[in-house]
Amino acid sequence: MSSEIWVVADLKIDGSIRQVTFEALSEAKARLAAKFGGPVCGVLLGANVSSLAGELGKYGAEKVYVVENETLKDFNTEGYTIALSELIKKHQPAVVITGNTVFGQDYFPGVAARVGAGVTMDAIEVDATDDKKLQIKRFSHSSKAIPTKLFLDHYPMMTTVRPNSFKAVEDPKTPEVINEAVTIDPGDIKTKVIEIKAKESDRPELTEADRVGSGGRGLGSEENFKHVYELADILGAAVGATRAAVDAGYCPYDMQVGQTGKAVSPNLYIAIAISGSVQHFAGMGSSKVIVAINKDPEAPIFQKCDYGIVGDLFDVLPPFTARVKSLLSQS
Ligand SMILES: Cc1cc2nc3c(=O)[nH]c(=O)nc-3n(C[C@H](O)[C@H](O)[C@H](O)COP(=O)(O)OP(=O)(O)OC[C@H]3O[C@@H](n4cnc5c(N)ncnc54)[C@H](O)[C@@H]3O)c2cc1C
Hints:
By secondary structure, the chain is of the alpha/beta class. The protein is built from nine helices and 14 strands. α3 crosses α4 (102-115) and α5 (226-235) runs parallel beside α9.
């Protein structure tokens, strides 16, 4: 095992690097580099990605491993799994980290299985013991508990990290770029990407947003969701929803927050007409400030929020939104 700490870049559909990659690089530098005594390195997997190495250097990557291969042009589980597994087998890093995004969740466990590594998912804290064992914290039991998990003698130690859990801090370096050729047999790729349709939206992406406005079944209709969109747009926030709201057809599935939806960790989460089920809390419990608007004073969300307004959303939200707009226009 080497002493290197790797952060595998998570790329958006437009080819840019997701913020969670920079957060992970910064946290690896702050918490792990000294303990492992090795450099923090970036890893780029894709078709034309080497030009992104400098961006990883901006957040402290001293080396960047680049695997360019036409089969990696669009994300696919098999190609990414093979590429990263082969890279790990060759260089034996101590720690491998990526974002807990749909991509990371998809292929990281498969890589761990191929290389015989230990893996944890969705860490909100990373650290290491004095004898160089990775130690992470993550939510469990629908966010009611935060266990600390220690890696034992399996290498590398792999984890995905929840977006917005760490601060991205610039620490400019000029990274050494190491181009690696990995053989990927096209026959090993079991699916073919025919078309990617990106959803057009001016709102920030839900999992990365600094602010989220979220609606529940209490909104009553798709039409009434406009109240949530209006507030979100004034705040520059993303919009989420509960499963009950999604199941009722008020909004699409990709807005669902929770155990079977997306995990979010914004600085501000405004829950509108949401009861506060454990399954919903599992996806937003790590939000820094939670504001709830609900007409039922006994709603469980009031046990979990920082600020609560008891009242009918149709009475509360319009003046609330107007007041937020006026305050923001003054600042
Ligand atoms: C295996 C499993 C996985 C699940 N995964 C998820 C998940 O990922 N995400 C998720 O969200 N849920 C999930 N659920 C569903 C979860 O259990 C709840 O049913 C759901 O979260 C409830 O959504 P809700 O709060 O919108 O609806 P409700 O529980 O119906 O609550 C609506 C709330 O709106 C309030 N309200 C109504 N009208 C108004 C008004 N005019 N003004 C103000 N307040 C009003 C009510 O007082 C109530 O508190 C899952 C369930 C299971 C079994």
